[in-house]
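Technical annex, item 7. During the second reporting period the consortium partners agreed on a shared format for inverse folding records so that results from different sites could be compared directly. Each record opens with the tokenized structure and is followed by the designed sequence. A conforming record, contributed by the partner at site C, is shown below for reference.
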């Protein structure tokens, strides 16, 4: 079955008449396993990884999008590893796999956008502890990415330049060759971060070897700092924005990553509350300059 046509089928895309926001109803996902007690399906020899591997991808068995457009990416064969513990070499293998899958999925005629992302920790809904991320390949450009591209066209210049720290560098957290990580001036979450290259590269596949090494080094550094911040593994959401794979040329777009850590203090979750959802505007209890300083001070 094709999947997304039937209003009561496996995937039903709907648009709310009040807000215009899109939701896909995927009721079959309610029966997926939650934190299985038995053998890890991602460890070598497990259900999703029968052979030895360093990094690996496979089609999501419980796909939120139909037609093979949802994938899982395994970062390492080591169940207890963290992203930071992969080191730059291990992280580079992950970056290469993200780029390869973006290219393959992006070349499909039914794919306009490839979102590479990770939910880390049970607090963010990760149902299996083994280090992994996911990829959704949309048949349209999703709203959040489309909003950023509209701002590119409105301003006629790269909004990431305006977003990055000013000459005072108060919001800069760290650098890697060709890359920077900073806390946004209008961060909606405490310790929220943006990671971007210094030059315009529109997508993950277009990063050259140096660009990929720089991204790998920056991710290892930043994610290590987040785990050090409160002395415990930080639950976070991470995603990449890259150009739409819609056949158009996007010469001025810059690939970048957003990281949203969940905690505002050790073990204390920041909740999005009624006024924020109701008003669509956020109230952040941590000054971005203080957040950047705290993360700069996290050095092993
Ligand atoms: Zn495992
Ligand atoms: Zn973005």
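Designed sequence (site C submission):
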């Amino acid at each position: 079955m094709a999947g997304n046509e039937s209003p009561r089928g496996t995937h039903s895309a709907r648009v709310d008449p009040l807000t215009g926001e899109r939701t896909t109803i995927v009721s079959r996902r309610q029966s997926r396993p939650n934190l299985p007690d038995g053998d890890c399906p991602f460890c070598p020899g497990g259900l999703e990884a029968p052979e030895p591997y360093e990094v690996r991808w496979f089609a999501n068995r419980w796909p939120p999008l139909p037609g093979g457009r949802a994938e899982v990416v395994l970062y390492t064969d080591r169940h207890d590893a963290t992203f930071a513990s992969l080191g730059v070499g291990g992280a580079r293998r992950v970056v290469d796999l993200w780029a390869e899958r973006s290219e393959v999925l992006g070349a499909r005629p039914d794919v306009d956008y490839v979102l590479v992302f990770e939910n880390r920790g049970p607090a963010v809904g990760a149902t299996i502890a083994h280090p992994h991320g996911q990829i959704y390949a949309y048949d349209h450009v999703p709203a959040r990415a489309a909003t950023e591209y509209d701002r590119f066209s409105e301003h006629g210049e790269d909004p990431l330049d305006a977003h990055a720290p000013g000459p005072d560098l108060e919001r800069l957290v760290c650098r890697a060759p060709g890359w920077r990580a900073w806390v946004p001036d209008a961060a909606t979450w405490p310790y929220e971060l943006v990671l971007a290259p210094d030059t315009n590269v529109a997508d993950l596949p277009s990063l050259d070897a140096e660009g990929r090494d720089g991204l790998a080094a920056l991710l290892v550094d930043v994610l290590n700092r987040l785990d050090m911040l409160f002395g415990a593994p930080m639950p976070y959401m991470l995603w990449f924005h890259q150009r739409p794979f819609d056949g158009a040329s996007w010469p001025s777009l810059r690939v970048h990553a957003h990281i949203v850590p969940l905690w505002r203090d050790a073990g204390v979750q920041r909740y999005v509350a009624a006024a924020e959802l109701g008003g669509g505007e956020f109230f952040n209890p941590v000054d971005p300059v203080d957040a950047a300083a705290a993360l700069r001070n996290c050095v092993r």
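The first helix runs from residue 87 to 106. The pocket of zinc ion (ligand 2) is lined by residues 148, 241, 256, 258 (CB under 6 Å). All partners now use this format for quarterly exchanges.
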